Amino acid sequence: MVKHGILVVADDAAMRATLARWLMQAGYAVELAESPRRAHDVAAKAAISLALVAPQGLGAPGAELAHELAEMVEHVIMIGGPAGNAGAPGESDASISTPLREPDVLAKVKAALRPAPVPETPAEPQTLRFEGYTLDAGARTCVDAEGQEVTLTRAEFSLLLAFAQKPGRVLSRDELTRVVTGRGAEPEDRSVDVLISRLRRKIEPDPKTPRLIVTVPGEGYRFTAKTETVVANAAMEVQRAEPKAAAASDLPPVQPRSNGALRIVGLVAALVVAAVIAIVGWKEWSNRGALQVAGTPPTASPQPTQPGQSKEEQRAIVFKRMVAAMQDNQFNWRTVERLAIVSGVDESEAHEILAEHPSEIVLGKSQDGKLLAKLAGR
Predict the structure, then answer these.
(1) CA 311 vs CA 247, 347, 361, 370: distances in Å
(2) Which domains does the chain have, with CATH numbers?
(3) Torsion angle (degrees, nearest 10) of CA 148, 154, 158, 164
(4) What is the enclosing helix (H) or strand (E) of 230?
(5) Cα 212 from chain centroid?
(6) pLDDT of 18-36, one tens digit each?
């Protein structure tokens, strides 16, 4: 089962560590961000299903972060708002009051990630085609004439679907804002214009002279392309195929060809499987020493050290935990902060322990100036 990716955005390191432990113990894959800039970077590169955002301490950009992340991830939950206050659609799914409690956080996350019920009878065509593009409303995908998927954010796809479902009709900014956020446009709100500009760059042959999404001055926008309902056509093709299938059932069965070719294919497949097993086994054998060191699962709660252990023994145990965390491939960002969280120490002590092993660990500067830890020679 694929784990949901959760992004925790908070200026408070203690809050990030606490939320990360709770979520990782619940089986989620967690990414951390201490600033809006890092949050955008992680959301753009990692598979994130939900973002937990604590705007306090993030400065002026923190107030707009929830709205910006809503265009990049499916769900956003604010931290520090009134209990039970649901945010506007397109901005946040809910809010969690402080002080934080583990049951409340996990309940809100689980509720947000729960799949929405699928309607039995869709009100609109599920698949539309226009100008070589195929728009699948159920899968929320857009494929061009060459079969390549066009990468669209949630807001961009919602706008394109609204246009395709109402071709030729002028849609006002207020209507389009409701499609994206569930509420009407506010004065001086130009977010829809920005989204349409981005959408034009992805689907228009010449974005500077748009012909699919045309501006109607003083009124809104009109979608000029002719749309075709693929669902209805597919049903007709099935109906046409039924008589052919019935006629084919009356024909005598076709005798199978010689199974010599099948034997060759089976032999080649067996050789490929054997080669893969040999390669995997060789890698496991060559890494056996490092894997023995990494004996503690990184996502598990750190086991307390024994009272009788010396300081050196305790630091050696913590180092093994950090090595195990660095070898866990489910995380995209292996920062020292994460290693400290999964190892049960603070970030400053984690830096000291890693610095004691220069031949095994490499510390390098990230774009944000945050130290990253890596296994030497890997």
Answers:
(1) 82, 17, 20, 27
(2) 5-113 (3.40.50.2300), 127-228 (1.10.10.10), 291-375 (1.10.10)
(3) -10
(4) helix 230-249
(5) 29
(6) 999 999 999 998 999 888 8
Whole-model pTM: value is 0.45
Q: Left, alpha or beta for 316 (phi > 0: left; psi -120 to 50: alpha)?
A: alpha
How, if at all, do strands 220-223 and 170-171 pair? antiparallel
The C-alpha atoms of residue 350 and residue 319 are separated, in whole angstroms, by 8
The per-residue pLDDT for 134 is: 93
Q: How far apart are CA 94 and CA 82, in angstroms?
A: 10
**What DSSP string describes 115-159?**
PPPPPSS-SS-SEEEETTEEEETTTTEEE-TTSPBP---HHHHHH
Overall size of the chain counted in residues: 378
Q: Spell out the residues 6+ positions from residue 70 whose beta carbon is closer than 8 angstroms to its own.
A: 76, 90, 91, 92, 154, 155
Three-class DSSP category at 272: helix
- Residue 221: strand, helix, or coil: strand
Give the position of tokens 């054998």: 285
Give the type of residue at 3.
K
